[in-house]
Amino acid sequence: MNTNLPTSLQALNPKAAHTCLGIENFITSKLQKSLSGTVLLVALSGGVDSSALLIILTCLAKKSGFTVKAAHFNHQIRHESDAEEAHAQSLCNALHIELLTEKADVCTYASENKLGLEEAARILRYEFLESSRVSIGADWIVTGHHANDLAEDVVMRLIRGTGWPALGGMEAICNNRRILRPLLMTPKSTLISFARSSSLIWCEDASNTDKNFLRNRVRTEVIPLLCKENPAFLEAITSLWELAQIDSDHWAAIIDQHLDKTDFEQPVLLKEDLNSMSLATRLRMYKAVLGSMGKGQPLQHNLLALDAAWKANVGGKVVQFPGNKIATIRKGSIYFSYR
Amino acid sequence: MNTNLPTSLQALNPKAAHTCLGIENFITSKLQKSLSGTVLLVALSGGVDSSALLIILTCLAKKSGFTVKAAHFNHQIRHESDAEEAHAQSLCNALHIELLTEKADVCTYASENKLGLEEAARILRYEFLESSRVSIGADWIVTGHHANDLAEDVVMRLIRGTGWPALGGMEAICNNRRILRPLLMTPKSTLISFARSSSLIWCEDASNTDKNFLRNRVRTEVIPLLCKENPAFLEAITSLWELAQIDSDHWAAIIDQHLDKTDFEQPVLLKEDLNSMSLATRLRMYKAVLGSMGKGQPLQHNLLALDAAWKANVGGKVVQFPGNKIATIRKGSIYFSYR
Which range of residues forms the domain containing residue A67? Predict the structure, then answer.
């Protein structure tokens, strides 16, 4: 590994420094998050995205006042897995970054739990990242998801079907899961330029071209068509994402305000509150209450059916939801419980 | 032309009758629109969509209590244009429907106004449809846009970049333009089945396969990939559309409530109102006020810049918008005017 990798903004050429500062600005201005005094745990695969992320954060650490650590999960599902771990280790050595590693038998876990290999790897990887985060006292798990990943995510959500603001794509901050995605507005091409200018060597993940995965088909077949129609397609996606975040904050505030009043053991949406809400608000409120009751995603037509029953004011009417949840309409209010 | 075309629900086979009733249900239940006593003017190209629409509405006319008329615009841009007009005429004769027709020189209009041929045709066609609607006293112009058109529209909006709820696609009712799209939830395949079972003959528009048009590339290249990933992709799109309409109603009510208080000559958003709004609401309010002031679409970053200036409370700060519109911040309120 090149031991002359940049570890400060001063060591970067102007373009690379500009990339770093743009990412810092995204965190502080758009996400309105100060990372001063925090410890960041970078999820380091050894690919170009997370490797560039590690260098970018290392260069920003002094200015922004955070500490950078890294964690590498060895999936052991490819021939190159051990070489990737060794690469991650030498990268961290060169940058003087503490690295946590873990090997896991993803194949056995997948077959035992009847999961796809990718899904099993994702579950075990995030379990490892979260336990690492806790063990070293880090505040955030930081991932290398970038604007191209975001575009793929939006297109996959469109294909599978979703609502709004979910259609806008993955979040940049996930408070529950302590995940931060500071590269989400940065195109992959910018990361590659950054990596090259830093003389970074990285591992190419061969599974990224495996057409058995939906994500890879979207990346290699769908996104190029969309970019051909609009060369600024990635910007259209990041703009859409920004609007989705703004709407997400709007709806979260309304939901929180109402859920605050609700007893989580026996959630109720009261007649007078429901009467003051639009259908758009009511549907999101039903979803939030059902979501607070545990596993089981309500379907759109379930939520619309509940609203139709509420509107018709069918006393005693019971609407069933996945996860053994039920909603009962009584005197214009809706009572939620388990079957 | 087959003179045994069905003109009543009773003349249809059960599946075709079911298609008709589903469309009637969409109008009355989802759109909550009664068409009883109205006159509908079908925009009839002679293709399968609008021809099926004409028969469907003819079969529903008695039950729903509306009158059906038709209008055909002869673009004269293809060899088949006159044959298509003759076809539309014989279809209307067979169904005993009054048909209005007009020929126009689209090519000259396009070159004189420096427009693309498709754009010029669209403008002249809608001018003709609206003047026909007024001249025969029809309530609505009814078009054959179906669920596949909707999916193309959503994908094109995603490609070009847009906000929400616009991303959900075209409206089923356009009150300003008096346009109704009752087939918007109906897949094209259902219309073709309907047409075949009615022994309908229709004209294929050769320009529908012309790859020079974005819409055709989306139809033939992008949508098939999305449908391959999710065979229920059209349903995902119509579900998304429904959520978009619900949100559209929500925001329209909020905007109307505030705009009601505003003087349209000199629109103002008052400090106390702005303070009570979320960013999501404020951005939509700025857009609505600027929209009410005439031509010129504000860009997302213009709207965000205005909000940032308002938040920073920069007294006297002027933000410029397309169409010579300006917004001035004074004592926490925003005053809109022309440059």
Answer: 9-241
